[in-house]
Amino acid sequence: MNERLTVAADTIRTLAVDLPVNATFHIWLKATGHNSLGSVSFANARGKFAEVSIANAEEYGLRIYQVFGGGHVELSFDTATTAVSVIYWFTAADVLETGITVVHTNRGNAPPELPGGYHFRPPFGWMNDPNGFGRFDGRPHLFYQHYSHGLRWNTMHWGHAVSSDYLRWRHLPIFLFPSEDLTARPDKRGGAFSGTTIPLVDGPGIRVFFTEQVADRQPEQQIQLTATSSDLITAGQAEVVLASRPTGAGLTPDFRDPYVFRGPDGLWKMLLGSQSDEGGVILLYETEDRTAATGWTYVGKLLVEERYRTTAIECPCLLPLDGPATSRSTRWVLVYGLMNSKDEETGRQNLTMADVGWFDGRSFSKEFGQELDFGTDNYAFQAFLDGDRAVGIGWLANWADAHPDIDFPTAMTLPRAMHLSDGMLLTPPIGAAESLRSRILDRTRLAAGETVTFDNGAVEILFDLDEAGATFELELDHPGAAIAVFRDQRGLGIRYERDDGPASPLYVARGANPRRVRVFLDYGSIEVFADRGRWVGTKRIDGFEPIRAARFSAGAQSVVQATVWALKL
Ligand code: FRU
């Protein structure tokens, strides 16, 4: 037995890992007290060969260590002096293929174990908005608002994952880090807020745009930064692209969430969310710099939104839908979140709007508008053009429920396609969602009014009604809440009443009269897509209890056919 193990007190934790050559470790640690260092040491058969340490006791700090040789390595730390939040390793040369390997999390940030769960979740810690969603170097990438060390919002980083089909993701190293000053204390002063990613014009590689928030910074709390990455896994030094808000526009300090895209005139454009005395506003910028790195100038307000008493617009995005960006007749969709908005009629908060119209590079003329999602748990939705197909994804949650004093694990929505049909915006799940269907559970009993029970909560239900707008109630059996999908005189809705919770808003698409309804269930969520995505409702379910069974408690006689699948990633 080697010496280290013989002296090991019961406060020593040891993690054994077998490594290929050239593994890079990311280790987040802090000191447990102010008088001694926190440290993690590395040992192999020949004994200890390295140590990383930190003096800060207030917040976990990142230490990076590269192990060149490979083989069996043991990492150890003394919990009397050292707290460790996360340890993962990866091999930089092929991490896009292999992902990171997480070897340590703790009770405060561990991900839930959800066998069969098929929604994207972070490998540890907190997640909110999707960021920088796009296809780069051939593969879909998803970045997201992230805090590694707990399940509550705090100093923002960008997490990162890569996929080949938008459904099966590999976790990658954390991509964007806030300034060192912000990471010294977990005091929620800001960080790397939401933004977008574009391919580098002189590629390969990417350029990201994001808001840097530093609470109480004068004169601006929120400024816009850019950084590039040639390997798609590490961001270079960030530079300021917009150091202040436009003057004279009557704006509050809200100035965030840059969305960068190519305009109809070939110039790079940027949208930002803000607020003025008129209501929520979307600001438009553009640059003649072909690299998009510099030269950003203010064009004007693209949209002013007074409805629902919003206090700021967040995460705007704009993309062409039914033709090339360069054609004058092409319709564009403008999606934006209404922070702090409230629909008094239903009690729903933080609504997301989708306006369809024409964008000439400088102004947007609206043809019609819809709510993006009547369930409102599809926030900070971000979409981009993948070739000629629009694909988007949202945060499967709502700030109205994310109380700062409760752990609040979240997922992303199913990725959605976006297209126009008969003067309406459709946002169905992407086609690849059908690849989740692993086994048919039922084709007869549900339609006959019987109860169909599930193996785990990962289920898709598809049913047709005998006429558009027939009334029904599909009851979903859950141990902690009354949950149902219904159509009644009000429209299509999701009932979600927690047994121990306050009264819920009315999640309803008024006047919706669907004929075909597709329902996706997973641990912690329900998503309803009616008539190919014409009406979509996404609702987060508290906790991880699966839905156990379904039954038409009303309207089974109107159900022409129903199919239930067990889903599997
Ligand atoms: C939206 C949002 C963004 C901001 C980010 C911070 O959910 O409030 O406006 O950039 O979250 O995490």
Automatic annotation (TrEMBL):
<dbReference type="InterPro" id="IPR001362">
    <property type="entry name" value="Glyco_hydro_32"/>
</dbReference>
<dbReference type="InterPro" id="IPR013320">
    <property type="entry name" value="ConA-like_dom_sf"/>
</dbReference>
<dbReference type="InterPro" id="IPR018053">
    <property type="entry name" value="Glyco_hydro_32_AS"/>
</dbReference>
<feature type="domain" description="Glycosyl hydrolase family 32 N-terminal">
    <location>
        <begin position="119"/>
        <end position="427"/>
    </location>
</feature>
<keyword id="KW-0326">Glycosidase</keyword>
<dbReference type="GO" id="GO:0005975">
    <property type="term" value="P:carbohydrate metabolic process"/>
</dbReference>
<keyword id="KW-0378">Hydrolase</keyword>
<comment type="similarity">
    <text>Belongs to the glycosyl hydrolase 32 family.</text>
</comment>
<dbReference type="Pfam" id="PF00251">
    <property type="entry name" value="Glyco_hydro_32N"/>
</dbReference>
<feature type="domain" description="Glycosyl hydrolase family 32 C-terminal">
    <location>
        <begin position="499"/>
        <end position="565"/>
    </location>
</feature>
<dbReference type="InterPro" id="IPR051214">
    <property type="entry name" value="GH32_Enzymes"/>
</dbReference>
<dbReference type="GO" id="GO:0004564">
    <property type="term" value="F:beta-fructofuranosidase activity"/>
</dbReference>
<dbReference type="InterPro" id="IPR013189">
    <property type="entry name" value="Glyco_hydro_32_C"/>
</dbReference>
<dbReference type="Pfam" id="PF08244">
    <property type="entry name" value="Glyco_hydro_32C"/>
</dbReference>
<protein>
    <recommendedName>
        <fullName>beta-fructofuranosidase</fullName>
        <ecNumber>3.2.1.26</ecNumber>
    </recommendedName>
</protein>
<dbReference type="InterPro" id="IPR023296">
    <property type="entry name" value="Glyco_hydro_beta-prop_sf"/>
</dbReference>
<dbReference type="InterPro" id="IPR013148">
    <property type="entry name" value="Glyco_hydro_32_N"/>
</dbReference>
